[in-house]
Amino acid sequence: MSSAALPEDALPKDVLPKDPPGGRGAVAVWSIGVAVYFVAVIFRTSLGVAGLDAADRFQVNASALAVFSLLQLLVYAGMQIPVGLMVDRLGTKKVLTLGAVLFTAGQIGFALAPSYGMALAARALLGCGDAMTFISVLRLGTRWFPARRGPLMAQLAGLVGMAGNLVSTLVLAPVLHGVGWVPAFAGSAAAGLVVLVPLVLFLRDHPEGYAAPPVARGAHGGFVRRQIADSWREPGTRLGLWVHFTTQFPAMVFLLLWGMPFLVEAQGLTRTTAGGLLTLVVASNMAVGLVYGQVVGRRPAARIPLALGTVGLTALLWAAVVLYPGGRAPMGLLVSLCLVLGTCGPASMIGFDFARPANPAERQGTASGITNMGGFIASMTTLLVVGILLDATGDDYRIAFSSVFVLELLGVAQILRLRGRALTRERERQGPAPATRPPRPRAANTDENTDENSPAGV
After folding, report:
1. Is residue 414 part of a domain?
2. d(Cα 417, Cα 243) in Å, to the nearest integer?
């Protein structure tokens, strides 16, 4: 019997009648999608462990080095709404397949690039393919699993992405220093070809009988305008964007480019020790992601406190390290900063938990694309500003890293401004709470040891 034919009373208790039932088949299909995302993150973060090598290879300064990541993120952020629209119209499989082809080609091109300009073009191509992965994986989660599992599946996807970051730090970095630039980057590109096979052969957009309603297509760009306007009109989408904007970028900036130079040049650590601290960020992210996913899934009211608490703690530890007297912070403080930076990724996923209930199934890709732009806009802005300030101040990380606080203040102000409207609108979409049945009068001879919540008391 197909899942579509299951009677309502046969579904698990946490599955609504119109919800996909989940199960092993859903896990298998979702795993193919996250494997593609895993490889994309390895390619995306590979520059983070090769920043100093890239500067030597292409003979560039800090600002030019920042342009690598800036261009990649600019393409990534600029592609989020188009990718969301593509996912809503074309489906997950086609978009994810195109993304895997593009980011694999970009990684190969970066390995073989003979000049700075060619390397920039390769990173732009990689960013374009990378942009197509995460939105597609989020869409798989919403189409294959019950809505109640949405926060957990999103956090698990983020956790798998951080595992890709871990591979960059623990595997690609020593391989790069052992065999050289071209073999390391060209060899890693083989992973893109490996994930393409199950993607093409086995991935499906949704379970049988659970297709999203068809999207109405207007002429002369009517579909595009309507999808974007309807998604943006929802305060939950805008709140999701600002939560993602405010929480994600400190860790992204640290991991993607400036963490390794900061720890080696400003803090005087060896590359091995610095790599260990970057690994700690990733490990913290993976552990915290599981906790945040469970908490948000069970207590949606915890979303704003978790997001703002993460921002506040990140700002506190960032300030303690950057402003430490003498410039070089003790190892315990650096470890604390890395542990807290690990919470930024899971906190940024909360943004999708505001956008998801604010939009119907046929707009999930577009709404997720808008939300996902937030953190990457903040990240590329900070990457560029830090590079410019380092060049202008003679590599003064204290001044350059202080730019983080400006964007955090902007983001917090927007979250506080939008949260009331977003939560009110969310309650309106969910409808009135079901009526509560009044308690049954207790019989005079009721045994005092009987619990009214036990089967005997039902």
Report:
1. yes
2. 12
